[in-house]
Amino acid sequence: MRTVVEVVARPGPGGRTVLPVVRASGQLAVRRTGPASVHLVATAFGPLGGDDAQISLVVAEGAVLVVRSVAAAIALPARGRPVPSAQRIHATVAGSLDLRLEPTVVAARAHHVAELAASLADGALLTATEQVLLGRSGEEPGRWTGTARIERAGRPVLHTTVGLGPGEQAWLPPAAPRAYASTVQIGDGTADVATGEDAVRLPLPGGWVTTAWGAELHRVVRAVDELTPGAPARVTA
Fold this sequence. Notes:
InterPro entries: UreD (IPR002669). Pfam families: UreD (PF01774). This is Urease accessory protein UreD. By secondary structure, the protein is mainly beta. It contains one helix and 18 strands. It has one domain. The longest helix has 10 residues.
């Protein structure tokens, strides 16, 4: 199944953000949940192998857009021949985009491809996160391939591909993490190199990127948060 989501944010009167385009078809619906925020809502179980979701986000100068989802996505294998599912996000940002979706869980025998392509103007702000867990409780891990391409004013800022799970070159047991998280922030200051438990933060032009790997998603997410400048402290029992 093919899914298409389109959201356009533009500046409105009094410094507010208006969303003249908020529409979706296929396996996702999109709902406006705040003055400048939308949530993606799954309308069908999946994605299944062969499904393709195209998400277009446009944020004009002076506008703010916050994008969330309401639940984790569970990528499932296709029947018959193995084909991947895909989610491809293309963002054009001159204002501020905060993109933080719920985790993707890749079931056994499934292969999910995630792509983020962001084109930023000078002065644009971007925060984007990715959280992945290979396999549900008690099952073998699936396969996930994630690519991020970010340009600012036409110049490359970040271009990276991470592959996890059976079939990926860097996934070699016993060093085979089932959980992965990353946060990239551009346009709101810089940060020095820092390391944590199976986590690293690296500086980028005008920002930084933090990644972490491990066996459990909640620990990986916490490791990223601990290296995130200005992030609130988490309270643990």
